[in-house]
Amino acid sequence: MNNPLTISVVTAVFNRALTIEDTLNSVGSQDYSHVEHLVQDGGSSDGTLDIISEVSGLRTHLVSEPDNGIYDAINRGLKRATGDIVGLLHSDDTFARRDVLSHVAAAFSDPMVDCVYGDLQYVSENDPTRVVRHWKAGFYDRNNIRSGWMPPHPTFYIRRSLLEKFGSYDTSFQIAADYDAMLRWLWIHNLKPAYIPIVMVRMRTGGESNRSLGRIIKKSREDYFALRRNGVGGIPALALKNLRKIEQFKLRKPPTE
What keywords would UniProt list here (predicted)? Predict the structure, then answer.
């Protein structure tokens, strides 16, 4: 009998005392038991570390040290990972249901699957029960990448061996290293993804990429650079990528439990 796949979930955190408990409890309540939760703290000073110490279970492994931003912190966490599969859960986010990681493990039981993704819901920063945007990713079609399609990054899991082979996040990006990485993995290296048709993650609004007009403009510039350097497209692909978001605001479904 094959050994069960292990999953490493990385959470990069810095001064998130208001949300980190929800994130930790979300991982701790998953019904899949072969999980390690790698919390990479950047030196929080707002009580985050105290909350982590109080709430952490056996799955949680904390390192607190200075870093050079969120993608550097994520890369540090990924280097600590020992699981067969790796993914992220940001410090403002929670899993949408208790069996998300069971679905992830089941999808990876197919040796032909390199990575998986699912659906995402953006929820109100102050009321996580209120859905403001529903991102239904849909089944994978490589040709759609040129039309601005991308999987929701917070739902994305990849085999650790492939992450180590093809590289993690380019820290020269401040906002769009996740988009650059997925273009590299899916377009350049043609990894084979599987779609899990459930809401996997609830993500609070007000994140790093959309908290101000300046950040939105900077993200668009970085997205354009990522498209160009990975040979996917340019301005048309970027425009289509942004237009795809409009439909997501029309699909405000309640999270599935």
Answer: Transferase
DSSP of 78-121? HHH--SSEEEE--TTEEESSTTHHHHHHHHHTSTT--EEEEEEE
Residue identified by tokens 């050079």 is 68
- Residue 34 amino acid letter: H
Q: What is the mean pLDDT of the segment spanning 33-54?
A: 97
How many angstroms separate the first and last alpha carbons of the chain? Answer: 31
Neighbour-count burial of 169, counting CB atoms closer than 10 A to its CB (0-12 exposed, 13-18 middle, 19+ buried): buried
- Angle, vertex CA 142, rays to CA 90 and CA 234, nearest 5: 80
Output the CA–CA distances (angstroms, integers) from residue 93 to 1, 202, 231, 236, 257, in the order listed.
35, 6, 31, 31, 16
Rounded to whole angstroms, how far apart are CA atoms 24 and 59? Answer: 10
Residue 65 token pair: 């040290």
Per-residue pLDDT at 240:
86
Q: Report the half-sphere exposure of 122 (CA within 13 A, side-chain side).
A: 15
CA distance 188 to 33: 34
Q: Is the pLDDT score of 1 beyond 60?
A: no
Name the residue type at position 11.
T
0.70 surpassed by pTM: yes
Domains within the chain, CATH numbers bracketed: 7-248 (3.90.550.10)
